[in-house]
Design goal:
Strand content: 15-25%
Helix content: 25-40%
Number of helices: 9
Distance between the termini: 75 Å
Shape: elongated
Largest sheet: 5 strands, antiparallel
Length: 362
C-alpha cells in the first residue's frame, strides 16, 4: 500500500478591485505647449474656464494628435481637481465623471474650439454637479430602502380570464412568434424603428374588464366607465381610502395608461417597437401587477426629491418584489405639481394606504 499522503487545497482570495483613477498621466506635451504659449499650466489646472479660454484661443493645438491627446488628458485631470468625486473611465472615448454625469474629454476639447457658445452651459454644469451628486445619493437611498408596508389583499386572488391570441403573419407567410421572436439574441437594428400589428394587444381589454370587476367586488371603490371621442375606454376607480386610479385603453390595441395617486403615471407596454417584442400576455402581467399593488397599498410617491425636485415612485407587489423610478416630472404634470407636495406630505413616507376591503361572509 502506498504511504498515506496529505492533500491540501489553497484558495487565494480575489484581489480587491482596483478603484478607477482620479488622474492620468500623459499630459506633459500639453504642459510644454502651454508654457511655450506664455500660459501657466498650474493656473490652467486649477481653473477649467481659464483652460477653456486658452484652448479656444489656440485651436492649432488640435492639429498635432499627440498634443491634442495630451490636452484632453490635462482637461480631464482639471475636471477631477474641481470635482473631487470624479474619476476616469477608459471607454471608447476617455471620460471623466460620476454616476450622475460623465464628460467625454476629447469631444469637450473640440467643443471648446468649435462652439464657444457652450462655455456658459459648461460653467453651469460644473457648478451644479456637486448638488446633482447629492440628489442622486438621496434618490438612490429611496430606491434601495427596505420596504416595510402591510399590504391588504382579498382572500381570493385575481384569476386572469382566457384571452384569444390571434396569430400574425410575416412577409413570408409564417406566424410571427411574438414574445420569443429573437430567440434570446439581439434583435436586428431596424426592429427598433418598426412597429407591427398593434392589434395584438387588443385582447388586453378583456383583462381590464375582468380586473376592474374583481376590484369592484372585493374593495370599497366607485367605478366610472366611459368612452371618449377617440374610442378610448376610460375607467376611473375611486376607492374610499387609498390612491384613486384611472385605466385608459385605446380602441385598437394602443398602449394603455395607468394613472394613480397624484403623480404616478405608467404606460403599458412602455414600448411597442418590434425589438421589444411585447405581447398581450406580458402587457396583462404588468397591468395586473401594477393595479393590484396600488389597491393593496403598494404605491409610494415622494416629491420633491433633492434640489432638482425630482419625483420618486415605487410599486411594491404582494409577493414582495417591485420596481421604482425617479426623474424630473414631465410637462404634462405641471398642473398636478401645484398641490402634489401638500397631498404627499400627509402620507406616511409617501405610501398610499390600501383600499378598504368590502365585508364578505366568511
Amino acid at each position: 500500500m502506498p504511504d498515506r499522503t496529505t492533500i491540501a487545497t489553497m484558495i487565494w482570495p480575489n484581489a480587491a478591485p482596483t478603484p478607477p483613477p482620479r488622474f492620468v498621466e500623459g499630459f506633459e506635451p500639453f504642459v510644454a505647449y502651454a508654457r511655450d504659449a506664455g500660459a501657466d499650466p498650474a493656473a490652467l489646472a486649477a481653473d477649467p474656464l481659464a483652460l477653456w479660454d486658452f484652448v479656444a484661443a489656440h485651436a492649432g493645438l488640435l492639429e498635432a494628435p499627440a498634443t491634442a491627446e495630451a490636452a484632453a488628458r490635462f482637461l480631464g485631470n482639471t475636471i477631477a481637481v474641481v470635482h473631487p468625486a470624479a474619476t476616469w473611465r477608459m471607454t471608447s472615448e476617455p471620460e471623466v465623471g460620476t454616476s450622475v454625469m460623465s464628460v467625454p474629454v476629447t469631444g469637450l476639447l473640440r467643443t471648446m474650439v468649435e462652439h464657444p457658445e457652450h462655455r456658459e452651459p459648461f460653467r453651469q454644469m460644473l457648478a451644479s454637479w456637486p448638488q446633482a451628486d447629492l440628489d442622486d445619493q438621496e434618490d438612490a437611498a429611496l430606491a434601495n430602502e427596505a420596504v416595510e408596508v402591510d399590504l391588504v389583499t382579498p382572500p381570493v386572488p385575481f384569476v386572469r380570464p382566457e384571452i384569444a391570441l390571434p396569430g400574425f403573419l410575416d412577409d413570408d407567410g409564417r406566424i410571427i412568434p411574438y414574445g420569443s421572436r429573437w430567440g434570446g439574441g439581439p434583435p436586428p437594428e431596424d426592429a427598433y424603428s418598426r412597429v407591427s400589428h398593434l392589434e395584438r394587444f387588443a385582447p388586453v381589454a378583456t383583462v381590464v374588464d375582468a380586473l376592474v370587476a374583481y376590484l369592484e367586488t372585493w374593495y370599497a371603490v366607485a367605478v366610472d366607465r366611459r368612452t371618449d371621442g377617440s374610442g378610448s375606454r376610460i375607467v376611473h376607480l375611486r376607492p374610499t381610502t387609498g390612491a384613486p386610479t384611472t385605466i385608459a385603453s385605446g380602441a385598437t390595441g394602443e398602449p394603455l395608461t395607468i394613472e394613480a395617486g397624484v403623480l404616478f403615471r405608467d404606460t403599458v407596454p412602455g414600448c411597442t417597437c418590434d425589438a421589444c417584442d411585447e405581447t398581450a400576455g406580458s402587457v396583462a402581467d404588468q397591468l395586473e401587477e401594477t393595479v393590484l399593488a396600488i389597491a393593496a397599498g403598494g404605491l409610494r410617491e415622494v416629491f420633491p426629491v433633492g434640489r432638482r425636485r425630482w419625483l420618486h415612485t415605487r410599486i411594491h407587489t404582494p409577493d414582495g418584489t417591485g420596481r421604482s423610478s425617479s426623474g424630473e416630472p414631465g410637462p404634462s404634470l405641471a398642473a398636478e405639481l401645484l398641490g402634489a407636495e401638500e397631498v404627499l406630505r400627509g402620507l406616511p413616507d409617501g405610501w398610499w394606504p390600501a383600499w378598504t376591503l368590502r365585508p364578505h361572509p366568511a
